[in-house]
Amino acid sequence: MSKLYVLGGRQRRAGIKEPTAADEWCLYDAALILEVDTLSGAARVCVQYQSPEEARAGQRPSAHFHSGARTGDILYTCTTTEVLTYRLPHFERIGYVSLPIFNDLHHVTPTRDGNLLLANTGLDMVVKISPSGAVIAEWSAIGEEPWARFSRSTDYRKVATTKPHLSHPNFVFELDDDVWVTRFHQRDAACMTNPGKSMPLASENPHDGLVNGDHVLFTAVNGKVITVNRKTLRVEKSFDLREIQDRNGEVLPAWCRGLLPVDQDRIWVGFTRIRQTIFKENVRWVKSSLREGTLVKPTHIALFDMATKECLKEIDLEPFGMHTVFGIFPA
Q1: Distance CA 123, CA 114 (A)
Q2: Residue 291: partners with Cβ closer than 8 Å, 6 or more residues away
Q3: Contacts of 19 (CB under 8 A, 6+ apart)
Q4: Hey, which residues does 266 pair with through a beta bridge?
Q5: In contact, 129 and 118? CB cutoff 8 Å
Q6: In angstroms, how far is CA 98 from the centroid of its own chain?
Q7: Which of 294 and 243 is assigned the larger pLDDT?
Q8: Do residues 40 and 2 lie in contact, with contact meaning Cβ atoms separated by under 8 Å?
Q9: How many angstroms separate the first and last alpha carbons of the chain?
């Protein structure tokens, strides 16, 4: 793969005033898709996007592409309140859905029957919709009635945040005939269509869950890749990327998300730099893990060889305007 598409966002320039509680939800001012040349390390912006007023909360909403999927020449992605479909390689937009039930969408992927699965993170739900936006099914990520804590009459696109989330579902996937989702707070992947089935992830907070042959590959946000056997539903291997990549006093950023297998051993992984923001819910542990004077690496993607436990290549994305990474796909 000489070229990759990387999905994420550009951080808003810092102002002179001290951050307020509202600033947590407007850190990024543009959703970006980069085409990255893995040989030269150069990149170009393919898409720069901001949600329209009717699909966002307030006048300074955070703008970034969360994760998606590529099928042939079609790329699926989402913002926090929209599902967008592009035809490659020219990024012609051929599909768009935005529904009042959307809040903090984290992932979209097509299903075998031609519909779409969504991680509707803000409502602790998994949702199945048609390409035109008809709701086909809804599942609670914690096993309650999907609307037990929420109101169908509310337009959640206009709600900046519904935190604290009870589950924070991140990534949806189909395994055989079942629908699964990664659950950040429960530290597992849970089956929505067959309640009770789960993949415990060794006390790690997962993000991506990518079916890859006989296994499911997960990223843990603290810098690990976990391999689960799809038949036994148990962890077979866990790779600590920090041990491979940390050197010269530098450490990986805390947020590890975005995953693309190249072959049996090599994988691309995305990393987002932890910055000095007012985020407290999920990054408090970072302060205790970073030594004084530690240099945190910039937002980047890296190619690892899991067999030899080597980092083969790193590409810094910040010079091209990307400060948060959510997805990596072959170009």
Answers
A1: 24
A2: none
A3: 277, 278
A4: 305
A5: yes
A6: 19
A7: 243
A8: no
A9: 8
- What type of residue is 42? A
Cα separation, 8 vs 6, in Å, equals: 7
Neighbouring C-alpha atoms within 13 Å toward the C-beta of 302? 26
How deeply is 126 buried, as exposed, middle or buried, from its count of CB atoms within 10 A (0-12, 13-18, 19+)?
A: buried
C-alpha angle 302-304-309 in degrees, rounded to nearest 5: 140
- pTM value is 0.91
Domains, in order of start, for the chain: 3-330 (2.120.10.30)
Cβ atoms of 58 and 26 closer than 8 Å: yes
From CA 11, how far away is CA 137, in angstroms rounded? 34
What totals of helices (H) and strands (E) does the chain contain, helices first?
Answer: 2, 26
What is the residue type of 86? Answer: Y
In angstroms, rounded to a whole number, what is the distance separating the alpha carbons of residues 203 and 190? 14
DSSP structural state of residue 318: G
Place of tokens 């600590």: 240
Round to whole Å and give the CA distance between 103 and 125: 10
Q: Report the C-alpha dihedral over residues 5, 76, 110, 215, rounded to 10 degrees.
A: 20
pLDDT band for position 24 (cuts 50, 70, 90): low
Cα-Cα-Cα-Cα torsion 291, 297, 303, 304, nearest 10 degrees, comes to: 0
Structure tokens at 182: 């990664």
- Where does the pLDDT of residue 288 fall: very low under 50, low under 70, confident under 90, or very high at 90 and above? very low
- Distance between CA atoms of residues 242 and 232, nearest Å: 27
Rounded Cα gap, residues 144 and 124, in angstroms: 10
Q: Which residues contact 73 (CB under 8 A, 6 or more apart)?
A: 87, 88, 89
